[in-house]
Known about the structure:
Chain A: Belongs to the binding-protein-dependent transport system permease family. Chain A has 270 residues and is mostly helical.
Amino acid sequence: MRPGRLIGKTVLAFAGFMAVFPLLWTALNSLKNNVDIITRVPRLVFTPTLANISYIIGRDSVMTGLYNSVIACGVAVLIGVVLGLPAAYSVARYPNRWAGDIQFFVLSLRFLPPVAVAIPLMVIWLQLGLYDTLAALIVTYSLLTISVIMWLAIPAFQAVPKEVEEAAFVDGYGAYSVFWRIALPVAARSLTGAVAFSFVLVWNEFLIALMLSSSNAKTLPIVASELSQQGMNVPWGILNASVVLLSLPPLLFLGVLSGFLNSVFRQKKT
Amino acid sequence: MARHSSLPVTFIVPTLAILLVLSMVPTLYAIVIALQNRELSSTAYSYVWFSNFYDLFFDRRFLNAVWVSVKWEIVTVVATMAVAIGLGVLMFEVASPRLRNIYCLLFIIPVLLPRVSAAFVWKFAYHPLYGIATYPYRLLTGGLIFDPLSKPATALFAVASVDVWQWGLFFAVIVLKLLETLPPQPIEAARLDHAKRWQIHAYVTLPMLKAPLISLMFVKMIESLRSFDLIYVMTRGGPGVATETLDMYAFSQGFIESGKVSYASAMAVLMMIATVITFTMLWKRVQA
Lengths: 270, 288
């Protein structure tokens, strides 16, 4: 068994290396001058430069994209929280005979091919004169955030011990204050994970943003992908820097999301 | 629970109404557009009923796209599950609790990246002359050139590898967590019967996890439908049409090449019908 274990550990270590190395390499390249990137033998030792990063931060299109992404995703997540959490609580705590159908409907929204939603929406927004606006993007993303938050929040609310809520009723709390003062705070950790997940999902969204924007409402992923359309004329260091900028916000949620995963599986155990 | 409260109604009715409107309006409108002959270049249009659908069946590029999408679906789902189960079991077997936590954190990173970022990272890495992933090949062959993204035979697999990099590693974490929730007694019993490590997993633990593993596969099948960003950034459907999936072809018909919005919508409607029927049936079976 000994050599087997050694091989196993080596494979694991290699997988762990593969998981982060490509990204670290990209981050490293964002600090390089072009001569240090375009080399047949990869260079680990080089004179670092901040030129790429300051170029990216100084570019209007990138800053507009960042602003659009933050507003569109932030507002859509906020709408998802306001509409999704109460609905999830209602399904979890006051089940009726449609509860199963409602859950399936919410999940089935995820089956819809994005291209099938984006084409008609583009025509609709064009006719309403809202094409290429943040408002159109926010409304479209809300469909995503509401359904994802609802889907993940239902089990989170179900995991709140019923006795706690019943005790609150006995103490004279109304149904709404039980939701506000008991269910929300008790489930807060799992709910934060669900909300973070929905944010990462819309932040990373590409196809819908690509089809619903032409100049004003471009989000950061679109701006980043356009930098590369200019082919190899754009210095690679700049492209790498834009990839790093785009990837940072989702990575900020790494801790929250891995904690969320842990809590989901701890519930299953008990 | 308070039985006579207005809460269930006030909490769920507005949300469901909004979800229904937001999802049904585009879905129904997609069907309407598919029955017309709209183009981006003009505002005039008329109803042509099923002629878009009829044309699709004689469009060889469309048939190719169907085939590429099926291949993509199979390759990514199978490879993701294989990587996830392999690494999950390995972590369970050889990693200490502290190492497990570190690996779990590392393995979640790729899936959090925007797919556009992941696609760029690997597009650089696969560059035939300067890429870090092709460097070992250049080193071993003394400078021969290998360009995985521009060869029809390898392009699909090269793009699929990025998808597996994101999802396979993430699912490995979930497989590990699932293994950790299992009761230890059956594993102990098998060990006492002198079962080898791989036998314990092949005949005891993995069969016990059949239901959650199938659900996991179901999730991956849905997520694999969203291949557009990777393919758009890495190959644009090329070389030729080797990686042109249905959403890529619908996009290029509707927006890049000819602006045939109705034709693209007809494709999207067919995709929608196929996926909704398939996944509804699968979901009912998973639940049963």
